[in-house]
Amino acid sequence: MSSLYLIDYYASSNTSFLHRFHVLAKLIFYFTVLLLMVFSSSFYWLSFFISLILILVLLSHVPLSQVIKWAFFPSFFALIFALSQLGAGLLPYLTMLRAVGAALLSIFFFTTTPYPTVFSLIAKISPSLAAFFLFSYRFFFMLLDSFTRKVRIIRLRGGFRGLKIFSHLSKLTGYFFVELTTRAEKIYRIMELRGFRGSIPVTSFQRFRLRDFLLVAATFFLTGVWLWL
């Protein structure tokens, strides 16, 4: 089973005070800090943001080692881009810090925010779009589980050795295209029989509390300090 399942598990099962913040307050914090990191050209500011996120991860009771492991993959692709910037002073280092910070921030947000609460905000704008994301969210993990099992079977049979890897990868791609289409059609027909008409009511019982206002105020204060300095 892929460790990506743990993202959903940590978001839904943990009970830290960071999990209890309103999703809107966390979205404001997430996008604000993300923009500050993207537009920051200071090594010290980027280091500060990364340190802040790591402290929040520790306070959320999400295993730090697992978060760093997940953040490694997008950071690896950023490393290739950073290497092309060698000779441009601090630019390659800033590129890496931005990539690491963005990856850590995104993982922190999704491991402390259950997906249905995010979909509840989307449902206020478009119920059909919220239903699409809700189906995609569950469907993704179903296909991921199936993909992991197939890859394990092929590896045990020696299918990823030598030139066989290209043949098996092409067959695996075709198989999952058919599997995706078949499952999607089957699930849609089942939902139609149960009365599905293009939207699913997605609601959240969260209410904006004092801690949420404090988080938003702290986010704006941090932005003001960043702009001032």
Helices and strands, in order, run as HHHHHHHHH
Helix tally? 9
Q: In whole angstroms, how far apart are the ends?
A: 46 Å
The count of β-strands is 0
Which structural class fits the helix and strand makeup?
mainly alpha
What number is the mean pLDDT? 80
What is the C-alpha radius of gyration, as a whole number of Å?
21 Å
Oligomer: single chain
Main sheet, how many strands, which sense, barrel? none
Percentage of residues in DSSP E strands: under 5%
Query: Which spans of ≥5 residues are poorly predicted at pLDDT below 50?
Result: none
Question: What helical percentage do the residues reach?
Answer: over 70%
Global outline? globular
Structurally, the number of domains stands at 2
Molecular structure report:
With 229 residues, the protein is mainly alpha-helical. It has two domains: 133 residues, no CATH class; 68 residues, no CATH class. 76% of the residues lie in helices and 0% in strands. It contains nine helices and no strands. Helix 2 packs parallel to helix 9. It starts with a helix and ends with a helix. The model has no long low-confidence stretch (mean pLDDT 80).
Architecture blueprint of SSEs:
Elements: H1 5-13, H2 23-39, H3 43-59, H4 64-83, H5 91-112, H6 115-125, H7 127-156, H8 164-193, H9 210-228
Helix pairs in contact: 1-5, 2-5, 2-9, 3-5, 4-5, 6-7, 7-8
Short structural description:
With 229 residues, the protein is mainly α.
List keywords for this structure.
globular; 229 residues; mainly alpha; 2 domains; 9 helices
